[in-house]
Specification:
- The protein is α+β, with helices and mostly antiparallel strands.
- Helix content is 37%, strand content 16%.
- The strands form three sheets. The protein has a five-stranded mixed beta sheet with strand order 3-4-6-5-11. Strands 7-8-10-9 form a four-stranded antiparallel beta sheet.
- The longest helix is centred in the first third of the chain and has 20 residues, at 2-21.
- The protein is flat and about 85 Å long.
- 13% of the residues are buried.
């Protein structure tokens, strides 16, 4: 009798699985196309589509733009044709137009796939990942996901009280499909908290997905609980087959280099005034890390540098690492670091020849090494990120609304 019940339940589950895996229909498809890519033959129909103009007004405040003969007046039918030609980056959404208009518009492009540079899918994620497999396999550079954390307090609309085994099965199905899309140099970043971090890490290893590291996100806002330690962090599991470091984009480096040149030019060269102004600017500029603010010195030739200790991390045994450096002005020996120098004498000699050793005003100050900031300077991504901003702050800057 027991076997009969098990067999019956298995048939029900197999049937449910068959329904779930049945390929789903695409209910509707729309395109967003910049006006500059649309033939002018379509402009009269676009000018007459009030729904589209109302959307542009809501997104871009067209009525607030200056009106003249060259740019056109979007508030009148006569001025809209001119306005369209003057604003080629306007995003037209085909959902506001008839199917006939959309068909004719798409037919006007020789290679629609080649011109399509973005795809937005509104779907259950497993179904969407299956839909993407054939076209995008091993072509995606980055997947960034924020799955259910398997907690009782989350506000997600879908079922979120999976036990460990059911939750892992859900994640396994999607991890594999997502990983199949990742290219040779791509990465999959997955947010998670302490409830399932170990299980997620184990799952990645079990599936043979290479792990590039884990980022600890310090949210600067401890979540107080009824017992134990207040949780102030989450994790981001970084999965990638790329066998090289992950570097941050050097936007701040370029900004520092540009500002230094502006200050030097303003003050007529590298002098006391330009050095003071540069130091003051870099200490207060927004968005710089502590490591970037350390580059607060200007060399006589305009290069930017910071000074770092030349002490060895562990005590040296060889006496050659304790030979003092001679101060270039007083000609007296300078203090030697307690653990000895971090570089061999022949290396320090090369640094001296290149002017990359920073001496104090006299021999009483221990020399330090100059490290210069250049266009090639880059910083490897740290495993710790401190950011108290909510995701909404970033989405708002994009003009989007994304309720939690």
């Amino acid at each position: 009798m027991g076997l009969a019940i098990i067999d019956f339940l298995a048939q029900i589950e197999d049937f449910q699985k068959m329904l779930w895996e049945k390929k789903k229909f695409v209910t509707e498809t729309f395109y967003v196309i910049t006006v500059g890519n649309i033939p002018e033959a379509f402009y009269p129909e676009i000018a007459a589509c009030e729904a589209q103009w109302q959307e542009w007004e809501a997104l871009l405040s067209l009525r607030a733009l200056p009106k003249d003969l060259m740019s056109g007046d979007p508030t009148t039918q006569e001025g809209r044709f001119t306005f369209l030609k003057a604003h080629p980056t306007l995003p037209l959404d085909t959902r506001h137009f008839s199917p006939d208009f959309t068909d004719r518009l798409l037919a006007s492009f020789d290679d629609l796939d080649e011109l399509t540079d973005g795809l937005l899918i509104h779907s259950e994620n497993w179904q969407a990942l299956n839909l993407l497999q054939e076209k995008y396999r091993e072509r995606v550079k980055c997947i960034h996901i924020d799955p259910p954390y398997n907690t009782q307090t989350s506000g997600f609309l879908y079922k979120n009280d999976y036990q460990h085994s059911s939750w892992l099965v859900m994640m396994e199905n999607r991890f594999l499909l997502g990983w199949f899309l990742i290219g040779e140099v791509g990465a999959l970043a997955c947010h998670i908290d302490e409830n399932e971090y170990e299980a997620l890490h184990f799952l990645a290893r079990h599936l043979g997905i290479p792990i590039g590291g884990t980022v600890v996100w310090d949210k600067k806002n401890p979540m107080l609980g009824l017992k134990g330690i207040a949780t102030q962090h989450e994790y981001i599991l970084w999965l990638t087959g790329l066998e090289s470091p992950v570097y941050l984009r050097p936007e701040n480096v370029r900004a520092i280099l540009r500002k230094a040149q502006e200050i030097i030019k303003k003050n007529g060269g590298v002098n006391e005034a330009s050095r003071r102004e540069f130091t003051a600017w870099i200490s207060s500029a927004e968005g710089l890390s502590g490591g970037e603010r350390a580059y607060c010195y200007l060399e006589d030739d305009g290069r930017i540098f910071q000074s770092v200790s030349m002490e060895a991390p562990e005590p040296r045994m060889d006496p050659k690492f304790f030979v003092p450096l001679i101060h270039p002005v007083t000609k007296k020996p300078c203090p030697v670091p307690r653990n000895g120098w971090s570089r061999a004498p022949e290396t320090i000699k090369k640094l001296l020849e290149k002017g990359e050793v920073l001496f104090g005003k006299d021999e009483k100050i221990q020399p330090r090494r100059k490290v210069f900031l250049t266009d090639e300077s880059r910083r490897q991504l740290s495993s710790l990120i401190s950011d108290s901003n909510r995701g909404k702050n970033y989405v708002d800057k994009l003009g989007l609304e994304f309720p939690y």
